[in-house]
Predict the structure.
Amino acid sequence: AQKITQTQPGMFVQEKEAVTLDCTYDTSDPSYGLFWYKQPSSGEMIFLIYQGSYDQQNATEGRYSLNFQKARKSANLVISASQLGDSAMYFCAMRELRYSSASKIIFGSGTRLSIRP
Amino acid sequence: GAVVSQHPSRVICKSGTSVKIECRSLDFQATTMFWYRQFPKQSLMLMATSNEGSKATYEQGVEKDKFLINHASLTLSTLTVTSAHPEDSSFYICSASGAGGGRGEKLFFGSGTQLSVL
C-alpha cells in the first residue's frame, strides 16, 4: 500500500533563508508521481512541483526544487530565499501511475511553515 | 493552468438537511474527479473517486449513502451530503484529473467548501 510520511509538523524559518521540508514515501508501484502542494489559510490547494519516478533530473520550478532520492524513497522540497508569503501548510503527495488517471493521490500529514520577518 | 471551480465556498445548514457541492472543470475534460475531506489542521483524506458515467468508488469507512457522488459529465461532479449532522461539518475539496498527457498527472483542486451543520 502506498504511504506518505512528513515528520515535521511545524517549522520556523527566517525570511530569505532556504528551507527543506522532508517527505518520505513507500510504494510497490515502479511508476509513480510525487507532488508538493501549498495550502494557505484560505484553504485552496496550490500545486508547486511534480517529480515522476522515471525522471532523470530533479524537478525545479522557480524557487522550488525537489530533492528526489529514489533509493531512499525521499522527495524533499527545497524553497530557496523564503518569503513571508511562503507561510502556509505544505503537503507532500504521491500518485501511483500504473492505472493512469484513475489512480488516487494520497497526502502526507503536512508541515506548517512559518516565515519570520 | 487548468481551473477547477467549486461551489459553494461556504455553507451553513440545519441538521437533517441535505447539501450539494458542485465541482466543475472549466478548461479540460475531467475523466476522474476526487473528493477529499479535511478536518482543521489535518491532512486531506480521500473520500471517493468518481469516473464519468460510472458509480463512484468509496474509500473504506466512507458511507456511500451519506455522501452521494454523481459524475454525469466530463466537466461536472457533485457531492451531496444527505441528512447532514454536526459531525459532517468539515472542509470538503474536490480535484480533477484529465486523461493524462502533458500535465504530469497532477490534480487540479477546487477552492474547497466549508460546511457547517448546526
